[in-house]
Specification:
By secondary structure, this protein is mainly alpha-helical. It has one domain. 67% of the residues lie in helices and 0% in strands. The radius of gyration is 18 Å and the shape is elongated. It starts with 12 loop residues before the first helix and ends with a helix.
Length: 94
């Protein structure tokens, strides 16, 4: 069986799920072990103190709104990436 290498744009939920899972994991780490969160979050930015820019208190509505926005944006980016991949693959295919 020969594969064409095409991607299904509607199967981009894995990027959205991964992004949401990482957001929840970082949030739980920030609540449970604040120092480890600051170290890990700052390590992503080569030691720059960007964790200090985070709000000290996060409301439930802010958490939920950010989570929904992050998942929606990740899904849209994954969908656009798969669509672009399919367009470029169709041009290249004989």
């Amino acid at each position: 069986m020969e594969t064409t290498g095409r991607r299904d744009p509607c199967s981009t939920a894995s990027l959205a799920i991964l992004s949401g899972g990482l957001y929840i994991a970082f949030y739980v780490l920030a609540v449970v072990w604040r120092d480890a969160f600051r170290f890990l979050f700052n390590a992503q930015f080569f030691g720059a103190d960007v964790a200090a820019l985070m709000p000290q208190q996060l409301t439930y509505g802010g958490f939920l709104g950010t989570l929904v926005g992050l998942i929606a944006c990740a899904w849209v980016v994954g969908f656009a990436w798969a669509w672009l991949f399919n367009r470029l693959a169709a041009q290249r295919a004989p």
